[in-house]
Structure formats: C-alpha cells, structure tokens
C-alpha cells in the first residue's frame, strides 16, 4: 500500500527532507543532518510533525468507566486537564500498545495511540465498548500534531502568539489546555518523547501549516530546527523511553518491559475490572524471566536492534534498540536479558557481526535533563 501523507508533507519536501515509511505514513526521517537535529533539541528546540499519531475521542456519561475497563490504568480518577500514560493489553496480558490519555472534560477524553497501531487499537477498544454509554470515535485522519521539544520550547511557543500566556507558563507536565496559538484554536499538551521539556499542539489538518510555520519562525534566531524521526528515535533512546515493536509488544510482558509498577498500581488500587487483569495478576506472582536493561559500551562499536547478548556460547538476550549516543559520545542500547544477568554493574557481551563487544549494565535513563 502507498504510505499516507500528512498535511505537512509538502512543507517537509521543500525543506529537503528524506522520507521513510513509518507506520504506513510517509514521514520525514531527517532534513539536513539527524545528529544536528538531535543536538538542536537538546540545546534549544526542535519542531516535529507527529501527525501520523492517532487520536481517539471518548465522550459520554460512562467515558471514565469505559477507559477503566479498556486500559490497564485508572482513568476515571484523572482530573480535567491532566494526562496519564498507560497500556492496552489483551486477555493474556500481552501489550497491544502504549498510549497517553488526556481528560478534556468530566465526560470527555482523548486517547493517543502509536501510528502503526491505530487500526488495531481502535478495533480492540471498540469491541470493549459493550453497554458503556459512550461515543468512541477515531479522529486520527482529520487531526494533525506539531511538537516543539527542547529547553527553549516554552519560549518558542510563547513567541508564536498565544491567547493566554499564563496558561502556557503554568501548564504542568502531563497536562493539557485549550488555547489559541498563531490564531489557531488547539489543544496544547505538555508531554513528549525526547527527555526534554516540550509541547504538543493538536490542530485540524487545515491549520497544521500555520502552526508549523509559526514555530519555525518563532525559533529562527534561537537555533531551532525541524527534526525528523531519526532524531526522535535517538532522543527517546537516550531518555530510556520504550518504542512499540522494540521494547514493547505482544511477546513482551509489562513486567519484562519495566512497566511492572504501572500494573501493580492497577492491581492494588483500581477497583474496577479491566481486560487482562487476571493474567497480569498471575504474572505478578513471580519475577519476570527477562528484564529490560540499559547498556553502555566499553568501546566505540554500537550494538543495533537484533544483536544477541551472550554468555560464552549461551544466548541470554537481545538488543531492542541501540545507537551511538550524540549527547553522551558513546554507544548505548536497551536490551531484554535474562533477569539473572540484569544487575546494574554487570558486564554483558554483545555479538556484533560475529565479534563480541563488552557492554556494562547501567541505570535507565541514560540522559536526564537539568531541571
């Protein structure tokens, strides 16, 4: 199938973007240089087109109760204007997707799934509506998302022309507020996937170009750059954030993926039943066979996704994501490894094209921004 194009495709093309098929969308991989884009986000700010992400609207008297049942976390206790990270699992406790849910009103939420999982997620959640009094709609194709990420992101957003500057300054992490930016009504959220402060601006497709242009114009004297998926991936990996299909999946339990605390909170504090509860409760009774760890290379050879972790002739795990870290100056990786080997401080050998390279198990995340 031909990949879909976002409303900003022509803008990326004019900027000389290299494109890649990601989740069924033709997305900018990089513009001039992905490492430069990465550094721009760490040092000033980057502007991303994330319009390939999904948006589901949940509205009705039972909106909170429906989400409590459909997702692992307790969404009905969210305050209006707040957001929560959670997972969608099947009856066996396998992770279908990780997603963010925003509470927009007492009876209204917006759920944001990953691009590659929009169809599966919508079908799965639709099947769980049952007798709940809700309207569950997929607004993904009519919604665009522009993100401004980096230490200067607040300054950039304010310079774009905001109807309520105090609302932007006072917006907390994992929260959202409706405002007008550059003359465009939007939902402004303060979340992100880079390890930096940042904002996501949800708008109708017809308004995406206005927001995109305003962000780049506001940051032109501050070192702000348009940033593609390559930089987004290296940034999220440094920040120790999972990517579905790498650190998360149907064959990776939440406990293996480091999301055990999220599940344990649901099992102990959530009164409502939810899909997968019984299977997850059984998993919680014993330690996971594998654990997600951070790895730091002792030398300069990077390990890529799919490389195996070995103990002599024994395979003990696999790299899920790996890069030469632009910020830290050495290769880092995340890996699923047998739990007995997952202790911080251990050295694990990685098979890189037939040669073994030593990596040290380290705490995640690899990078933390200064507050």
TrEMBL record:
Keywords, alphabetical: Aminotransferase, Methyltransferase, Transferase
InterPro entries registered for this protein in UniProt: GcvT, GcvT/YgfZ/DmdA, GcvT/YgfZ_C, GcvT_bac, GcvT_C, GCVT_N, TrmE/GcvT-like
BP GO terms, sorted: glycine decarboxylation via glycine cleavage system; methylation
Binding-site residues, substrate: 200
Sequence ranges assigned to domain Aminomethyltransferase C-terminal in this UniProt record: 290-368
EC number annotated for this UniProt entry: 2.1.2.10
GO cellular component: cytosol; glycine cleavage complex
Limits of the GCVT N-terminal domain: 8-265
Membrane-spanning intervals of the chain: none
Pfam families per UniProt: GCV_T, GCV_T_C
Source organism superkingdom: Bacteria
Example GO molecular function: transaminase activity
Reactions accelerated catalytically: N(6)-[(R)-S(8)-aminomethyldihydrolipoyl]-L-lysyl-[protein] + (6S)-5,6,7,8-tetrahydrofolate = N(6)-[(R)-dihydrolipoyl]-L-lysyl-[protein] + (6R)-5,10-methylene-5,6,7,8-tetrahydrofolate + NH4(+)
Enzymatic class: transferase
Family statement: Belongs to the GcvT family.
HAMAP family: GcvT (MF_00259)
Quaternary state and interactors: The glycine cleavage system is composed of four proteins: P, T, L and H.
Protein role: The glycine cleavage system catalyzes the degradation of glycine.
Name of this protein: Aminomethyltransferase
Source organism of this protein record: Rothia terrae
């Amino acid at each position: 199938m031909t990949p879909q194009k976002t409303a900003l495709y022509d803008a990326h093309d004019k900027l000389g973007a290299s494109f890649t098929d990601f989740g069924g969308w033709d997305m900018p991989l990089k513009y001039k240089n992905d490492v430069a884009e990465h550094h721009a986000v760490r040092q000033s700010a980057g502007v991303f087109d994330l319009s390939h992400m999904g948006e589901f609207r949940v509205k009705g008297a039972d909106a909170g109760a429906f989400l409590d049942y459909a997702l692992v976390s307790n969404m009905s206790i969210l305050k209006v204007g707040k957001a929560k990270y959670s997972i969608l699992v099947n009856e066996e406790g396998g992770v279908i997707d990780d997603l963010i849910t925003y509470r927009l009103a007492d009876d209204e939420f917006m759920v944001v799934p990953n691009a590659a999982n929009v169809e599966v997620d919508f079908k799965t959640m639709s099947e769980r509506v049952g007798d709940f009094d809700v309207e569950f709609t997929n607004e993904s194709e009519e919604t665009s998302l522009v993100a401004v990420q980096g230490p200067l992101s607040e300054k950039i957003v304010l310079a774009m022309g905001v109807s309520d500057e105090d609302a932007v300054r006072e917006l907390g992490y994992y929260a959202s507020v409706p405002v007008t930016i550059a003359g465009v009504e939007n939902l402004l959220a303060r979340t992100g996937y880079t390890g930096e402060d940042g904002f996501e601006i949800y708008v109708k497709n017809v308004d995406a170009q206005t927001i995109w242009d305003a962000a780049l114009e506001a940051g032109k004297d501050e070192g702000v750059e348009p940033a593609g998926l390559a930089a987004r991936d290296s940034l999220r990996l440094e920040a120790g954030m999972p990517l579905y299909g790498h650190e998360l999946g149907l064959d990776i339990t939440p406990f293996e993926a480091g999301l055990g605390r999220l599940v344990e909170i649901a099992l102990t504090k959530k009164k409502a039943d939810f899909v997968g509860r019984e299977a997850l409760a059984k998993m919680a009774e014993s330690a996971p066979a594998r654990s997600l760890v951070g790895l730091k290379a002792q030398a300069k050879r990077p390990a890529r996704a799919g490389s195996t972790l070995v103990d002599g002739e024994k395979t003990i795990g696999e790299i899920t994501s790996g890069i030469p870290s632009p910020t830290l100056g050495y290769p880092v990786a995340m890996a699923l490894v047998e739990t007995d080997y997952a202790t911080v401080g251990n050295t694990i050998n990685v098979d890189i094209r037939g040669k073994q390279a030593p990596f040290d198990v380290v705490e995640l995340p690899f990078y933390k921004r200064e507050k």
